[in-house]
Amino acid sequence: MKGKVVVEDKFASLEEEVIKAKYGSKRVFEFWRTNHVSLSFLTGLSDIEDLSLINAKIEDPSALSCLTTLKRLFLNGVKVSSGFGFLSGLSQIEELYLLNLKGELALPSLKGLDSLKTFRVWGCKRFSDVSVLEEAQGLEEVEFVDTAMEPDDLLVLFEKASIKYINSQFRAKKQNDVFSEYLVKFNKNQYRGP
Question: pLDDT tens digits for 125-176?
Fold first, then answer.
């Protein structure tokens, strides 16, 4: 992708300053296998719209709520020592992707995420509670792959009027058949059309 800034492995405060000075106006950033005491250096990136953190370790992610231009957050295999409570402060986010997060994934209330349109969880094998998504008023599209959920766990989302697209894949054919029946019963689409 033209204009994407990719940072891999070791990353120190000196590199943070270089990123801000050299790439401050870029919109897309990826950080791979990096360690961060804080993400406050990102506040110097005034145009950031798309942030991916892959296999990163983060102590304090709270600065993400200050990134008013951030629309898409992609978290893959990250470890956040303070937990995922920071997600409740990301009112600007339109798309949230949570992938391959180990351990229990207890999400905070998402009531204040009025801009959230798309929510996807992949490979979070202990994720099983979608009730916090009921509070996200503008949510239109959800996807769950390789989680601990059963089709019945998604009923609260099937009943949510704002959700138009809902996709999930289950281990057993019977579960997938039940899911397909729910799509028809609640008049939802599995995928967004081309």
Answer: 989 899 999 999 999 999 999 999 999 999 999 999 999 999 999 989 999 9
- Strand pairing class (50-54; 141-145): unpaired
Neighbouring C-beta atoms of residue 175, cutoff 10 Å? 16
Strand order in the sheet with 118-122: 4-8, 28-32, 50-54, 72-76, 95-99, 118-122, 141-145, 165-169
pLDDT in tens, 79-102: 999 899 999 999 999 999 999 998
Beta carbons within 8 Å of 125's beta carbon, 6+ residues apart? 146, 147, 148
Residue 106 confidence class, pLDDT cut points 50, 70, 90: confident
Radius of gyration of the chain (CA): 18
96 CB-contact burial (10 Å; exposed 0-12 / middle 13-18 / buried 19+): buried
Element (H, E) at 52: strand 50-54
Q: 3-state SS of the chain: helix, strand, coil percent to 5? A: 25, 25, 45
pLDDT, one tens digit per residue, over 2-16 is 578 888 876 666 677
Output the pTM of the full model. 0.92
Among 84, 95, 90, which Cα is nearest to 119's? 95
Entry field: residues in the chain: 194
